[in-house]
Design brief:
24% helix, 7-stranded mixed β-sheet, 4-stranded mixed β-sheet, L-amino peptidase D-ALA esterase/amidase, 8 helices, alpha+beta
Length: 364
């Protein structure tokens, strides 16, 4: 397995301390992974802060690049512009179970939910991991979601973990990836932007990594499956989560979410007909109270004229996170013996002494 530090740095903005979404203060990530024969799946949770997100909501907005997806909770986010649960990622058929777990979690913390308090809006994103995972088992339970929440921390494991366990990308092993960038908007003002992706999309001939069109070369290396991969339409998905500590409102956050599409496109995605490509951005700069008897925040929003650096940070951290997802994944064999090779295994003979994404003269 090649190490992260050998990968090219996307763009010219500096990365955060961990080069992860958790460089945005307060954000934590947890996984629970199921890896047993035909069951190759899991749950990943992103917590926006350590408190109760139902009582102290964070501003958020989503952008649907291509809507071939079965997510829960986007309609209310579009209307109200806030998150009120952790963000959960899982496989397509496990969305109802995880949404139920989020509702029960909220009721446990707030017994009057749906009574004297409003109902809660669960937020679950999905990708179809059915090639490697027996998705009909519907193996994910409420307890798995709670365990992912309990595991949430600042160190983020990448690749074939959590919701990423059974995911495929560009005909290779996909999964979870994360990255961050620091953006200076004025001489003395800098903000952090972090991205986390669930990569389950793409056609191998179209793969571009750090500006290098590697897809055709990699398809040659996978000669036994090259023909079928080339003919297969794009029908995967990717979930793109963006966090920032910049003080932005929901309108501005939707603009950030849209820029995740720029980073996605650089990797060779065309947002294909059967691909569910959804981005969500949220800010940790302030919270919005659930109850009307609590004061609303008085935070001054960042001026739109200063937002371009954040747009760049979103695009670059998204592209970097996708590279990390591919690079960090390990090969997985799952349902009916289906197998996905990892990118790092496919490029095992590419030396660290040259550009890590440029083959040596001896490479085929």
């Amino acid at each position: 397995m090649m190490h992260r530090h050998l990968l090219p740095h996307i763009g010219n903005l500096p990365q955060g301390l961990r080069n992860a979404i958790t460089d945005v203060a307060g954000v934590t990530v947890g996984h629970h992974t199921l890896a047993a024969q035909d069951v190759q799946t899991g749950v990943t949770v992103v917590r926006p802060h350590a408190g109760d997100p139902f009582r102290d909501r964070v501003p958020a907005a989503a952008a649907v690049l291509n809507g071939f997806g079965k997510s829960v909770g986007l309609l209310q986010i579009e209307e109200l512009g806030v998150l009120e649960t952790p963000i959960a990622l899982t496989n397509t058929f496990s969305v109802p179970a995880v949404a139920t777990a989020q509702i029960r979690q909220c009721m446990a913390a707030n017994p009057e939910t749906g009574r004297s308090l409003p109902t809660v809006n669960p937020l679950v994103f999905e990708c179809n991991d059915g090639f490697l995972n027996d998705i009909q088992r519907m193996a994910i339970t409420e307890q798995h979601y709670l365990q992912a929440c309990a595991q949430a921390g600042v160190d983020v494991e990448e690749g074939s973990v959590g919701a990423g366990r059974g995911m495929s990308s560009f005909g290779l092993k996909g999964g979870i990836g994360t990255a961050s960038r620091r953006a200076r908007v004025m001489a003395n003002t800098e903000y952090t932007v972090g991205a986390l992706v669930l990569a389950n999309y793409g056609r191998l001939p179209q793969l571009v990594l750090a500006g290098h069109a590697l897809g055709p070369q990699l398809a040659t290396r996978l000669a036994t499956s090259q023909k079928s991969l080339a003919a297969e339409p794009e029908k995967g998905s990717i979930i793109l989560l963006i966090a920032t500590d910049a003080p932005l409102d929901a309108r501005q956050l939707r603009r950030l979410a849209l820029r995740a599409g720029a980073g996605l496109a650089r990797t060779g995605s065309v947002f294909g007909h059967g691909s569910g490509d959804i981005a969500l951005a949220f800010s940790t700069a302030y919270t919005v109270p659930q109850q009307s008897n609590r004061p609303m925040p008085t935070t001054a929003m960042l001026h739109d004229g200063l937002i371009d650096a954040l747009f760049q940070a979103v695009s670059d951290s998204t592209e970097q996170a996708i590279i990390h997802a591919l690079w960090g994944a390990c090969a997985v064999t799952g349902r009916d013996g289906h197998h996905r090779i990892a990118l790092a295994d496919l490029l095992h003979d590419w030396p660290a002494t040259s550009h890590p994404l440029t083959p040596s003269a001896s490479s085929s």
